[in-house]
Amino acid sequence: MAYHVVAYSANTNTQTNFDSAPIVDSQIPIQNAHFLPQMDLMLFGGAFLGANLTAVTLVTPRSRMVVPPRLFPIIQSITVPDRPHIFDRRHNPFKLNAVEEVSLQMNIGGTANAQNVGVMFWGDRLDPVPPGDIYGLHGTSTTAAVSLQWTQLTVTWDQTLPAGTYAVVGSQVQSTNAIAHRIHFLDQVFRPGFLSLASVGNISDPSYYYGGWGKLGQFVTYAYPYLEVLVNGTDAAHDCVLNLVKVS
User: How far apart are the C-alpha atoms of 53 and 8, rounded to whole Å?
Assistant: First the structure.
């Protein structure tokens, strides 16, 4: 079932172990201002952004039994840079117990409030990538994305795919204030994705392209998946790519 992208935000300064706020998510409930997964999940990776961000710590009842782990690297900018520093735990994911609140605590400097965002990838497994050629389907969207909310895009794709079933093994979304994106497959609970791009001349972490984080999901051509974006500002021009393998 791949993984799911969740996000936290904090707009403050001069804080240590600040309990950041979960961004409302249609799939993961919130309790006491913390995400509350309903099944055992694994933390496969993420990214942590903010100009004055100096440290990020994962705090759960389970992590307190030893020591709440410091998550690194961080990105000291709210704008996603070229080749961003990704927190990658694919080879040693950290367990998140069912019905245990998950807190993302941030150390934030500065003398004026500034936006900070944490994005994490939670799931039960990373699915293998099916064999075959990988194609890039390109599209654009003029949907007005709302700052620091997951916004579903209406995408106009450049080409019509031949009828069949397609696996998505990567994606890319660019907009001026982009932070992250995820894919809503109609028959799948989890919505996987990755960091987005602030410039079409940038690339994301190379691990993500062409199946590095497994098969994200699949769809048939009469039910295309939707893209959801997270931005830090109002964006209404989005450049989108889905990397696909035709499986039938």
Answer: 13
SS3 of residue 207 by DSSP? helix
Under 8 Å between Cβ of 51 and 26: no
Q: Work out whether strand 114-123 and strand 151-152 pair parallel, antiparallel, or are unpaired.
A: unpaired
Written in H, E and C, the secondary structure of 129-180 is CCCCCCEEEEEEECCCECECCCEECCCEECCCCCCCEEEEEEEEEECCCEEE
Quote the pTM value.
Answer: 0.97
Q: Which two tokens stand for residue 49?
A: 């952004």
Per-residue pLDDT tens digits for 188-239: 999 999 999 999 999 999 889 889 999 999 999 999 999 999 999 999 999 9
Question: How many Å apart are CA 172 and CA 194, to the nearest integer?
Answer: 8
Q: What structural domains and CATH numbers belong to the chain?
A: 3-123 (2.60.120), 135-246 (2.60.120)
Question: What is the spatial distance between Cα 230 and Cα 137, in angstroms, rounded to a whole number?
Answer: 21
Q: How far apart are the first and last CA of the chain?
A: 19
